[in-house]
Amino acid sequence: MPQPTGWLADLMADGSYDYLVLGSTPLAGLLAGLLAIEHQRRVCLVGEPFSPFRLQRSIDISIAPLTRPETLLLLKRSAAETTRLVNGWGKGLISRADPLFVAETPHSIAALGHFRHLAIALGYAVEPVADRSIADGLMLRVRDVQLLGHGRFEPALETWLARHEVRHLDRADTELTLRKDGTARIVSGEHSVEAAQVILAGDDAVLDDLPEEARDRSLEPIPGAAMLLDTSRPLPAPYLSFLDRGVVLVQDGKVSASALLSGDPATARARLGSTIARAGAQRLAGETVVGGIGTADGAPYVGPARGHKALVIAALGPAAAFFAPVLARHIAGVAPADEAAWVADRGPSRGNQRLGAADYQMVPA
Amino acid sequence: MTVLASRFPADAPNGLSGAELDRRQPLQFRLNGRTIDGFAGDTILSATLANGIQTAGRHGDEALALDESFAPLVSTGKGTALPMDRTPALPGLDLVTIGSRRDPIASGGLLGALRNRLLGPARTLNHRYGDDQVGSPPWHNAAVDETIEVDFAIVGGGVAGLSAAAAAAAAGKRSVLIERSQSLGGTIRYFGAVDAEASPDVTIERLIAGLEGKAPVRVFTRAEAFAIAGTTLSVHQVVVENGRPVSRILAIVARHVVLATGASERLPLFPGNRTPGIVGALTAFLRAERFGIWPGRRALFTTPNSFAYRLALRVADAGIEVQRIVDSRLSTTSRFVDFAKATGITLASALAPSHAEPLQRNKPGLRVGFAVAIDEIAQDSTAIETDQLVAAGAWQPEILLWLRAGGGAGWDQANGWLGPRGTLPAVALAGSAAGHHTTAAALSSGKAAILGFLGKTAPPVVDNIIEEAFETPDARNPIAPFRTSARGGTYLDRGTSLITRRAAAASKYGISGLATRAVQLGLGDIAAAVDIGAMAARDAGSVAAERCALSGEIRDTGWRVATPPAVEDEVPAPPSYLAGRFGDKPQLWAITAADARSFEAGCLIFENSETSDPLKAIGVTYAPHRPGANGGMAIIGKVPEAAGAELYVRDAGTAVAARLAEKLKLRS
Questions:
Q1: Residues A38, A111 within the same domain
Q2: Which of A317, A318, B30, B285 is the most exposed place for a label (fewest CB within 10 A)?
Q3: Quick one: pLDDT at residue A7?
């Protein structure tokens, strides 16, 4: 990560940053990079630097069981852009995968069924899977979607940001003052600089840096966990999402799998155990707490904080990183009409603004 | 090599003859078909090492030393898995090591006999290790044999633990003391006494006598506390029943827990650092002190601290040729250095091991190279052949149980180790696990932990390190200059993770796969990763909490997705994610299919058969029709006409003609 020595003096000569992007997920990095590189804005990214020894906090895939056609359409377009961008950095940073989505209750079966018909209409190859060894219910395999390669993507992202001189500061070494007018003061070492607009990019940034009272009423923290497993045999699919159990599993190697769990921490291990019952016991090689953000209506949130002009981007789900190009265009003010309308519908919960945005939310009861 | 060639004689001086052995009681047992000679008091591991078996197996091309931190489990053949280092050697046992072995018959039967005659007995257990993790011991998930309720559970039978136990006994509290090895006393004899301190033997004797206080302490040896939940410890103990070793699982339910788990000696980082014949200085001492083990008759010492000098002096006095003591510090002041000089031992400074390799495959002896260790300068010195390299390393407090109890950890820059952070309400650390350096601090911190829980004031723990003018401070863990051409893997630690320096360094660039490899890291791995710059010091505590703190397995415990109560409504409400999707006032309709099919929930409805753009859909099916009827229930925004109107349902891409059958109303 570039060190702050000397950079602030240069920056202060012509003012300040246009944007302070807060967040440690691929979404935050991609968004900061796109704003700086594609849209020529002055951007400072502040977040936790990547550590290859820490557990994977997000599993980023270019599809999600969404039920809004406009969201799926936008995601498809945005994911193609993201894939092209990341593929340009090098090989193996993003890979093709055929994820498997599993629904086991009438509610989730109906939602996943609807997703299936929408996805087919939008050109995705979606096929039902009848394998009772995995679960009972509706299982869908989506062909040819993209999965970010954890451990390989992050260093390449850092290199991309550094090559384009996008400042990336370690959150632990940076003091931030977020003001209600959406601006911020960034203090790193002995240097201090202003940012005209704060962007809280991702659930982690909202949970870590936005005061609770500034969260929109539609935003709800969701407890969660990340686990690393030593699997005795490969998972039945490289990416498995159990909608009703709040479990997402991804095969990371021949005998390794990462799991992200959302919902009640007290049942997390039991829920994970139920998904891999037929594979036998799995040795736990790592575990940590990873919180997330959901919304009351299941729709993503893109809009100002409550009583605050910082921009909040949250509840985008597993495909969050792949929305980065759309969000960057919106922030840069160059979004086409359909993208602008999509964002407008996903703003604060005042009035009926979000009525047309409700979506299926994968959180266990 | 015979059983005696790897041991000091019974009359060896300086307490190196094997205090735990009864040499009047020789015994034999079988391991992987090979006869192992030992004595009463041996463990399976000590007897195996004493029989010249120094290799656990191979990891790729690397031969890995058999070690207290890296030994396969053994089975008595009845499904029991036991640790080699905590299982007593008993006559007549017939054991096999558990895990993937390359040639399990090479040491037994006719082939084994032929091999032994031609090549000499195998010096390896012949296991094969891959990049996948060595599995957790089966007792981590075993049922509890006995539950014991106490006031204090003290983990670690070194001076800090003994001091805590003695204080608990004096206070009349019910206590247990849990110790991994066969005897109490820990490692104090390695470090010796300073100035006016009582000798280690006197100190240990006094503390053990103190266990018989107002309330005698129940002592469990060969017992390992492997998990802690709140203040309940899960303990695995090896006991002997009917002449056979068996596993026992104890649940110790304590009001308070004192963790006096000591510190481990880290592995110096150089290519070939786990080659058989390389041993840590503390381990070498404990093997000699407890079991009289010392392979070969010449030894090289390398160290970043002064304690290894003391060991070198003692083994030299016992007849071992100490070829050289190589210190990674530039200029060392120590009474031990003076003694070593006076004894005529060759000393070298500012050097650290640069590589080690076996002289010959499957034969004892190794060749060790050294390089100048000053800043970035790297210049090789002449390689030396030896029987054993005693490679001392820096220290790492053993805080795994502390982490498992929910304690914090962070990188301690001053000491160069991963140290404990914060406090826990009912769990305390003592001794070197708490980061203390001296025997005095170990003694007082053990006692203070108990008094603190009893609400009594304890004298402050004073950890007076000898002044630099008299004793040069310990250097950081030796690290060889990185060379891409180096032969032999540089492992970060002695444990089961088998992470190499190359893999750790490459992980920063996303090319090693370490980020997603399901290996449980050891504390030594983390410390080494920080030392070589593969991990930011600020991440060390978080990584330890995430990847060291847990044990156990994920298994099916019977949790199942709850079946929602049956919907009694004849017309179910459409799901919330369809809110606002088809206008402000959508209608609910029963629709029938022209080909009498039933539509699954989620099919898009269009005004005509040509359209398939989901943005132009006028409705969607959301529930099956009433029993006996085809089609389904739909939510529709723009209704073409009244009942009977034709529309088209896209069922998996196919347009199916349907009709509005009946307008539905929700009950409420």
A1: no
A2: B30
A3: 42
Give the CA dihedral A203, A209, A211, A216, nearest 10 degrees.
Answer: -30
Domain count for chain A, please give it.
2
Below-70 pLDDT ranges, chain B = 1-4, 102-109, 116, 119-120, 131-134, 373-378, 511-512, 551, 567-568, 641, 668
Q: What is the pLDDT of residue A276?
A: 81
Q: Are residues A13 and A139 in the same domain?
A: no
Work out the angle at residue B22's Cα, subtended by the Cα atoms of residues B18 and B24, and round it to the nearest 5 degrees: 130
* Residue B197: CB atoms within 10 Å: 15
What lies within 8 Å, CB to CB, of B494 at 6+ separation is B67, B69, B70, B267, B274, B280, B522, B524
What is the structure's pLDDT at B3?
42
Q: Quick: pLDDT tens for A135-172.
A: 989 999 999 999 999 989 999 999 999 999 999 999 99
Residue A6, pLDDT above cutoff 70: no
- State how far residue A182 is from chain B, nearest Cα, in angstroms: 30
Instruction: Give the type of residue at B599.
Output: F
Contact at CB, B564 and A105, closer than 8 angstroms = yes
**In angstroms, what separates the C-alpha of B532 from chain A's closest C-alpha?**
14
Q: Do A283 and B553 touch (CB under 8 A)?
A: yes
Strand A100-103 versus strand A138-142 pairing type: antiparallel
Instruction: Extract the tokens encoding B332.
Output: 């060392």
Residue numbers in A near B515 (CB within 8 A): 52-53, 56, 150-151
Which residues between 162 and 221 in chain A have a beta carbon less than 8 angstroms from any beta carbon of chain B? 170, 172
> Which residues in chain A (212-271) have CB-CB distances under 8 A to chain B?
227-231, 244-245, 252-258, 267, 269-271
Three-state secondary-structure class, residue B447: helix
Q: Which pLDDT band holds residue A98 (cuts at 50, 70, 90)?
A: very high
Q: Is A166 part of any domain? A: yes
Range B22-135+265-394 classified under CATH 3.40.1080.10? no
Q: What pLDDT does residue A363 have?
A: 61
* pLDDT for res B429: 98
